[in-house]
Amino acid sequence: MADTQAGADRRRVLIAEDEALIRLDLAEMLVEEGYDVVGEAGDGETAVRLAEDLRPDLVILDIKMPIMDGLAAAERIAGGRIAPVVILTAFSQRDLVERARAAGAMAYLVKPFQKSDLVPAIEIALSRYSEIAALESEVAGLTDRLETRKSVERAKGELMTKYQMTEPQAFKWIQRTAMDHRMTMREVADRILAESQEAGGAQPATS
């Protein structure tokens, strides 16, 4: 039963890493954790082409790669709304994490990493990607979209701090409340933030 369930939920992952040994280890970890490795690349340009062809559920990119680096590849893949991206970075490259986020990466892993680090990073990336897709379907204009994301991020933080919710739980609470009350997620988020300032921690009302 567990195997059948795992098979039904398997996520398709593309790996791009120029060091063959790390790529092999990563692929083994992913398979052991129930993911399908549908493609592998040793450079960013090949990674972008495979992502466009294979349409995976997730792409894992090393920052330092030949031909096209991971940041440029992430920008192409995330910008094209092909798949969420997890960036691999060496500890000495931590200064590049902000650039990776700006390029559209949803999460990152610092090398050397353990199998226990891998799944949380993937789940964070998948969760954030689905959140952005939901927000973008609600708001058409780029400026409004950015402001909506900022409000929702802050509102999620309020819910996580006050009610010990996880980040996905907080987003789902906002999304469900918006649907139940025929509001936009931006309106729900703004109300949470306003009530937090006024009431100093009262439960956010939605009616």
UniProtKB/TrEMBL annotation:
Membrane-spanning parts: none
The organism's place on the tree of life at top rank: Bacteria
Assigned keywords, A-Z: Phosphoprotein
Cited InterPro entries: ANTAR (IPR005561), CheY-like_superfamily (IPR011006), Sig_transdc_resp-reg_antiterm (IPR008327), Sig_transdc_resp-reg_receiver (IPR001789), WH-like_DNA-bd_sf (IPR036388)
Modified residues (4-aspartylphosphate): 62
Domain Response regulatory: 12-126
One Pfam family in the UniProt entry: ANTAR
Domain ANTAR: 132-193
Gene3D superfamilies: 3.40.50.2300, Winged helix-like DNA-binding domain superfamily/Winged helix DNA-binding domain
Name of this chain's protein: ANTAR domain-containing response regulator
